[in-house]
Amino acid sequence: MKKITYFFALLFAGVMLVQTGCNKDEDTPKGIKLVVVKRSTGDLYTVDKTTGDLTEIGSLTINGEPLTGLRGLVYDPDTEKCYGGATNHGGRGFYTINIKTGVATLLNEDTAEDWDGIADMILAADGNVLVNLYSNIVGESALVVFDKTTGDDGTHNEINDGDEDIWSTGGLTYGSSASQVIIGGNHEIYFANTTGLVSDTTALLPTANIDDEDVHVMDLEKDTDGTIFAMLYEYHDMDQYLVKLNTNTGEITELSVLTTAGILTGYHCLAFIPASKLP
Question: What pTM did the predictor assign?
């Protein structure tokens, strides 16, 4: 009798374990989706991480109109919302977004014109949002923490190497630790601390297709396995690519061509979001 009871106890425990695992699937890499947003329309897409193919799943709006001009997007598991930032060529401002419905709320419209567009963003160590933007306050690219409740922007810390200021073309993700970030540049990426002090640089290696005189790193996003996805824009050829980057060697692995008609028709906002939170 004891053996039979023990057997059913084990069976019950096994069933509970399987059920618990299924319920938490959204917390595994398979339950997290890579997304992008079309700059000119605010349309939201999931990305096939192997082929780079896009699947439209929804759209982002503000006051019933398309939210255009977005360049940065990050998901916050604490609030279960996204935060986004736009260029000064449309949609200018810092937003909170219900990614399930696509409805955005403007938190900071930058009435003082303290920055010329937000280029990318990640969650800051304190739970707020760390932003890469071009600052009109310091006159250079800068890292700035935005309060996710009020939308207020904090100190504008210019990106520099200790001697010279550095212009960032966009892109921001974490490096090897929470105290190191990777920032996009022209033909290169920078390794810096969270206040913008650059300590190292990796030059990007051209490919058969990505060989423009100016190749701008515009978006960066790190997967759970450490893979870095990026969007690269050939300024003169006007082509935009989705790629994987080896941040140590600068090697580029092409995934797909996103546009051949200029960045205004392109995509931004690389972000990883739980599948259950998407439309």
Answer: 0.89
